[in-house]
Amino acid sequence: MKDNLKSKSCFILSLIFTFIIALYSIYLMKPIKAVYAFHAMPEKVLTLKEAYILAAHRNGTIRATKESYYQSTLLKWTAISMLLPDINLTYKDQRFHLNTPPSTPSSSGSSSGSSSNLAFFYPNYEYSFTLDQPILKLGALPAYGAAENTIAQTKMNLNNVSATTLYNVATSYYTVLNDISLINADIKTYNEAKSHLQLTEAKLKAGLAIITDVLQAKSQFYAAKQELISAKNSLKSAKAELASILGIGRHFKVIKPAEPTIKKALLKKYIFLAYKNNPGLRSLKYAKKAANNETQYYETQYIPQVNFQASYNALSDNHFIPGGSINYWTAGVILTMPIFQGGTRIISIEKARSAFNSAMYKMVQSKRDLKAQVVSDFYNIQNLKYEVIALKHEEMFASKNYTLVEEEYKAGVATSVDVITALAELTTARHNLLASRLNYYESVLDIKRLIGSFKRKLISLTIDKFN
Q: Torsion-angle region of residue 270: left (phi > 0), alpha (psi -120 to 50) or beta?
């Protein structure tokens, strides 16, 4: 009896001890969950305009190009320094010395060896102040023009890089949105395939279907599941690409902005805007001007150069200048007349002229290529617009057809193959619609980049401080 009481009391104590341990563990887990909840940051909602501003301020390529522009602004001082004077101050501290001959040995025959005396005397201190001021140096003018042209070119390059970055932001942003729409479409397909599989399995149990119908439904179900997984992975890649451009983490959400459109205008207006704002043509214009400035610079080397030179000299002692003055100054004009310096300048001039002609021919061909690209993009947008409209109707009809076939299958009129075929056609229609819509958006963004819309967006956002 006592043993039974002891065993029961031990069992009750063990239960109480277990219960206490369980309560303590639950108590310990609460703060941990609270910490995790505290550190769980909500995803940032990112609009397209905010994405533009983030890219302009954080993108490394834009910031590096800004530094290049700042460096180019220092180049004009190279040309200005060609007209600035050279001013020098020279100071000398000299000691003249006398090396005496060695002393003769004594008659006693004892000699301690020959020796000489090295004595310093006549200390001389001298300083001079010189000025060399160019008076006529025409080569500075084309050099200054080349520096200004380089500054304008790097500024244009900065604007082009910024506009291209905004274009990349827009394309990546709409790609993320398209992948989200693709996931939603694949979720619908997945749910529809799952529902059909469940219905087929129920019919098989009821003896209204065969095992082949179930296998086909399972195949369609796993295919839909795989497409959904692929769409999710594609979204992760697109968000990572957009985050790298913006310089932020990839945990964010996007909001669907207004669809990118182009204003209704004649084709020739788009061609004119492309000629005016296309970065490729403008860079060739700067290349022509740079070659022209280089030609003028080498041509000015044939023109004489005139410099004014003056100096003031002061000596501390006139011991070695008998009858001279210890303080004196000089002034004069130096004329440098180039006569012949080999073929260096002639070759340089011909190279610069050839570079000018090359840039001119490239600009002519670039205009032709640009015009062809604008025409192609313009009509491609029109075709894609009608294609999107047609695919919307196709997706709507495919959805209605699938619903109808599914109802017929439930009623026993249609087969499982009919349902799977209708679902496959609906999936293809959904994917084609999304792909065509994204292609349409990208084509609109392409022509916007050609006509300079992203450059104007930079100015409207006031994020480019060099405009």
A: alpha
Determine the 3-state secondary structure of 466 from DSSP: coil
Let me know if residue 27 belongs to a domain.
Answer: no
Find the domain containing 190 and state its range: 46-93+138-461
Separation CA 450–CA 467 (nearest Å): 19
pLDDT tens sequence across 150-182: 888 888 788 788 888 889 999 999 999 999 999
Q: Is residue 71 part of a domain?
A: yes
Q: What mean pLDDT is reported for the chain?
A: 79
- Give the DSSP H/E element, type plus range, for residue 331: strand 327-336
- Residue 165 tokens, joined: 């970055």
Number of domains in the chain: 1
Given a cut of 50, whether residue 39 has pLDDT beyond it is no
CATH number of the domain that residue 373 is part of? 1.20.1600.10
Place of tokens 């011991």: 319
Beta-bridge mates of residue 335? 306
Beta bridge partners of 132: 86, 309
- 6 pLDDT higher than 90: no
Can you point out the beta strands (E) in 247-326?
A: 252-254, 305-315
The answer to the question of residue 156 being in a domain is yes
Q: Is a pLDDT exceeding 50 seen at residue 298?
A: yes
Tokens representing 387 are 């294609």
Beta strand residue intervals within 337-449, DSSP E = none
Q: Two tokens at 454? A: 């992203």
Q: Are 155 and 69 in contact (CB under 8 A)?
A: yes
Best CA proximity match to 417, nearest among 210, 194, 190: 210
The closest of 162, 160, 154 to 62, measured between CA atoms, is 162
Q: Pick from 378, 467, 466: which is nearest to 68 by CA?
A: 466
263-289 mean pLDDT:
79
Helix (H, G, I), strand (E, B) or coil at 5: helix
Contact of 164 with 449, CB cutoff 8 Å = yes
Q: Judge contact between 278 and 305, C-beta under 8 A.
A: no
List the structure tokens of 97. Answer: 């010395």
Is residue 392 very low, low, confident or very high in pLDDT (cuts 50, 70, 90)? very high
Cα–Cα distance between 290 and 145 in angstroms, integer? 8
Place of tokens 């260096």: 344
Specify if 125 maps to a domain: no
The closest of 312, 330, 315 to 88, measured between CA atoms, is 312
Please write the tens of the pLDDT for every residue from 40-84.
456 788 888 888 888 888 888 888 888 888 888 887 777 778 788
Judge contact between 386 and 440, C-beta under 8 A. no
**Burial (Cβ within 10 Å: 0-12, 13-18, ≥19) of residue 120:** exposed
